[in-house]
Design brief:
Blueprint lengths: L13 H6 L2 H9 L16 E10 L3 H10 L6 E4 L24 E5 L2 E6 L6 H4 L2 E7 L5 H6 L5 H4 L6 E8 L9 E10 L3 H8 L11 E3 L14 E2 L8 E7 L3 H9 L4 E4 L5 E6 L12 E8 L2 E7 H13 L17 H11 L2 E7 L15 H13 L3 E6 L4 H13 L8 E4 L9 H8 L11 E7 L24 H7 L6 E6 L11 H7 L3 H4 L7 E4 L3 H16 L2 H7 L10 H6 L4 H14 L1
Parallel strand pairs: 15-16, 15-18, 16-17, 18-19, 19-20
Antiparallel strand pairs: 1-5, 1-11, 1-12, 2-5, 3-4, 3-11, 6-7, 6-9, 7-10, 8-10, 8-14, 13-14
Helix pairs in contact: 9-17, 10-17, 11-17, 12-20, 13-14
C-alpha cells in the first residue's frame, strides 16, 4: 500500500478522478488502489465532500450543538447513530466510514497519536461512537472553476489547499472550545466578488469566505507557509481569500481532550453521493457585494446589494448644497459605504468636532457638527463599540456638560467619554499623537477609527481658517496630528465629513478645493482622511453615516462576515432603531445647545 505524505503533490491522474462517481472513488479508497493520504480536491467534481469527526456517544449531543453554533467551519450535513457506518442521509450507495476516507487521524487525550488508512482495528470502540460529516469547501471547486475563478492548488498539481490555525474563537459549547481553522485560496483581485457570490449560497459546505485579504488580522504570520495541507504559490495580483474549514473539528477534539476520537487527515475527505448544492447565486435581490477598504495590505468587507443601494441613496441625499458653495466637485462616490463598513470592523472609535468661527462668543464654536457627532456616537455605542469624543482643550468641560444635559433630558441614553488633545502636559507633536493612538501592538491600537465631523482642518500655511479666510489658529488644538499619525498606522482608519473644503479630512480633495471653492488656495485643508464624505451640512453627513452604520450592521451577509461565520447575529434591530437620528431629537438637541450658550 502506497502512502502520500501530507501536503505532497500527487501522481494521481486528476482528470480521470475528477469524472469518477463518488461510489467508485470510495471503492478505490477501500481497496487501497488509491494511495492512502490522497488529497481529494478536484476528485468527483460536483459532489459534496465531507470533513469527519468521530466521537463517543456521550459527547455527541454537545458536538452537534457546537456545530450548529459554528456553522461556518462545521456545517453538519449528517450525523450517524452510534455504531452506524453508512451515511444514508448523503450517500445512497455502498459506504463505510471505517474504510472510505483516504487517511484518518487517531486522537487520544486530545493528541494525534498516529495516522491510519482505515479504522478496522477500532471496530469494537466504534460501536459506541457517532460519526459527524461536515461539509467541505472542496465541494465548490467545480462551481468556482466554471465561474472563471482559477484554483492555484489544482494548477500546481497540489490536490490539497493551504490551511491555517487562526485566532478566531468559535462559540463554545460544553467541552468544545477552540479557535477556527481556515483554508485559503489565492484569488485574483478582480475575481474575489465572483468567488464570494458563487460560494455564498453553498452554506452546507462552508459558504462564502470568512475573511478577505490581510492574514495578520486573523492571526496568520506567514501566509506562504501553511500550518496544514500544502503551501500554494501566488500569482501577481492574487489576494489570500479564507474560508472556514472543517479541520476546526480536529482542533475542537484536541482541546476537548477526549480519550479517543477520529478525524480525517486534512485534505483527505469523505466523498458523498450528494450533488453539490450550488444554490441560486444569480438573483440580484440580495447579491453579496465585496468592497475593498485597504490596499496595503489588502482588506475587503462585504454587504448586500440592497444595503449598498440604500447607502448610495443616503449619500446622494446629503449632497444638496444649500450654501451654494460648489461642493459637488468635492464629492467622491462610494465613500459612505466604505466608511460605514470600516466602522463596523472597528472596536474603539474617536469622533472629533469643533469649528471656532463665531466672533466675540464664548464658546466660539458653531452648532454644526455636534448633532452629527452625538448621532454617530450613540449608534456606535448601541453596537457595542467604545466611543470617545476628542475636542479642543478649551471645550472639553463644556462638551461633558452638554452630554450630561442630553442624558438628563432623555435625548440620549448614556453619556460618551470626552477627552482633549494634546493630553495635559504634552506637546502637540506627531510623537504625542502616535502615543495617543497606540495600543498593546500594531494590530490592536487604542483607537482603530477616527472620524472628524465639521472639524476645522489645518491649511497649507499651517493655520486654521474659516470659509472667509479668517485665521482662528489661537482657538484650535492640534487634533489634525491624530489623522497624520494614523496615516502610518495600518490598523487605524480615518473618516472626514465636511461641507466646505476647510474641514479635517478634506486634504483628500485639496486640489479640487483650490480649484472650485472660493478662497480655496487659502483655506483648503491639507490633511487627508481615508474616507471622505462631502455633505451640504456636515451634520447631515454625520446622520447619514449613523444610518449607514445601522444598515450595514443589520445586513445578514455582513453580520456573518463580521463574526467570521461563527456564533449568532450580533445586533438587535429594535435597539439600533431606537438611537437613529430624528427630527425630534435634533430639535431637542438644538434647544439644549441654546441653553448651554
Amino acid at each position: 500500500m502506497s502512502v502520500l505524505p501530507e501536503g505532497s503533490k500527487s501522481d494521481v491522474d486528476i482528470e480521470d478522478l475528477s469524472k469518477m462517481l463518488p461510489k467508485d472513488v470510495r471503492l478505490m479508497v477501500r481497496n487501497k488502489t488509491l494511495p492512502a493520504g490522497t488529497a481529494t480536491s478536484g476528485i468527483s467534481k460536483g459532489y459534496t465532500q465531507a470533513n469527519m469527526a468521530i466521537v463517543h456517544k456521550s459527547v455527541a449531543e454537545d458536538l452537534e450543538k457546537f456545530c450548529h453554533a459554528n456553522r461556518g467551519p462545521l456545517p453538519l450535513i449528517f450525523r450517524s447513530q452510534p455504531g452506524e457506518y453508512a451515511a444514508p442521509g448523503i450517500s445512497q450507495y455502498d459506504s463505510d466510514i471505517r474504510t472510505d476516507v483516504p487517511m484518518y487521524c487517531v486522537m487520544e487525550d486530545g493528541v494525534k497519536t498516529k495516522e491510519v488508512a482505515d479504522l478496522m482495528e477500532y471496530a469494537k470502540e466504534m460501536e459506541d461512537m457517532c460519526s459527524f460529516y461536515l461539509g467541505c469547501s472542496f465541494t465548490f471547486d467545480k462551481a468556482l472553476m466554471e465561474a472563471g475563478v482559477p484554483l492555484r492548488n489544482l494548477e500546481q498539481k497540489t490536490l490539497n489547499v493551504s490551511m491555517y490555525q487562526t485566532n478566531v474563537r468559535c462559540y463554545p459549547v460544553g467541552v468544545f472550545d477552540c479557535t477556527q481553522v481556515m483554508s485559503m485560496k489565492p484569488i485574483p483581485v478582480d475575481k474575489i466578488e465572483t468567488a464570494y457570490q458563487v460560494t455564498h449560497p453553498m452554506e452546507d459546505v462552508h459558504g462564502a469566505p470568512a475573511h478577505i485579504g490581510d492574514p495578520a488580522m486573523i492571526g496568520i504570520d506567514d501566509v506562504l507557509t501553511a500550518d496544514l495541507g500544502s503551501s500554494i504559490k501566488f500569482h501577481d495580483g492574487d489576494v489570500p481569500v479564507f474560508w472556514s474549514c472543517g479541520v476546526t473539528g480536529r482542533t475542537a477534539l484536541s482541546t476537548a481532550k477526549l480519550s479517543l476520537a477520529f478525524t480525517h487527515r486534512p485534505g483527505s475527505m469523505y466523498i458523498s453521493d450528494t450533488p453539490a448544492n450550488t444554490g441560486d447565486s444569480s438573483s440580484n435581490q440580495d447579491k453579496a457585494k465585496v468592497v475593498a477598504l485597504r490596499d496595503k495590505p489588502f482588506f475587503a468587507s462585504v454587504t448586500a446589494q440592497s444595503v449598498l443601494n440604500k447607502v448610495h441613496e443616503l449619500e446622494s441625499c446629503v449632497q444638496e448644497d444649500p450654501g451654494c458653495r460648489g461642493i459637488a466637485s468635492l464629492h467622491i462616490k462610494g465613500e459612505l459605504i466604505k466608511s460605514a463598513l470600516s466602522l463596523s470592523h472597528a472596536s474603539s472609535v474617536v469622533i472629533t468636532t469643533g469649528f471656532p468661527c463665531i466672533k466675540d462668543k464664548i464658546p466660539p464654536y458653531e452648532n454644526d457638527g455636534l448633532s452629527g457627532t452625538v448621532a454617530l456616537a450613540t449608534m456606535l455605542q448601541a453596537q457595542g463599540k467604545d466611543v470617545t469624543i476628542v475636542v479642543d482643550t478649551k471645550w472639553e468641560q463644556l462638551m461633558r456638560d452638554i452630554l450630561t444635559d442630553l442624558v438628563t433630558k432623555g435625548i440620549i441614553e448614556k453619556t460618551v467619554d470626552v477627552t482633549s488633545f494634546p493630553p495635559p502636559n504634552k506637546e502637540p507633536t506627531l510623537e504625542t499623537a502616535v502615543e495617543f493612538l497606540k495600543g498593546k501592538d500594531e494590530l490592536h491600537p487604542k483607537f482603530d477609527h477616527l472620524v472628524a465631523i465639521e472639524r476645522i482642518g489645518r491649511a497649507s500655511d499651517k493655520t486654521w481658517r474659516t470659509m472667509k479666510g479668517r485665521n482662528v489658529s489661537s482657538q484650535v488644538s492640534h487634533i489634525d496630528l491624530l489623522f497624520e499619525a494614523a496615516k502610518d498606522m495600518t490598523y487605524v482608519s480615518t473618516t472626514g465629513i465636511g461641507d466646505g473644503g476647510n474641514e479635517l479630512g478634506m486634504g483628500k480633495v485639496k486640489d479640487k478645493v483650490i480649484e472650485n471653492i472660493d478662497l480655496g488656495s487659502e483655506i483648503a485643508c491639507e490633511v487627508a482622511a481615508d474616507y471622505l464624505l462631502t455633505a451640504g451640512v456636515s451634520d447631515w453627513g454625520g446622520f447619514a453615516l449613523s444610518m449607514a452604520a445601522c444598515l450595514v450592521s443589520l445586513c445578514p451577509i455582513h453580520d456573518r462576515y463580521l463574526r467570521k461565520a461563527v456564533g449568532y447575529p450580533l445586533q438587535n434591530k429594535d435597539k439600533l432603531f431606537q438611537v437613529l437620528p430624528s427630527v425630534e431629537k435634533q430639535e431637542a438637541m438644538l434647544a439644549v445647545l441654546k441653553e448651554e450658550r
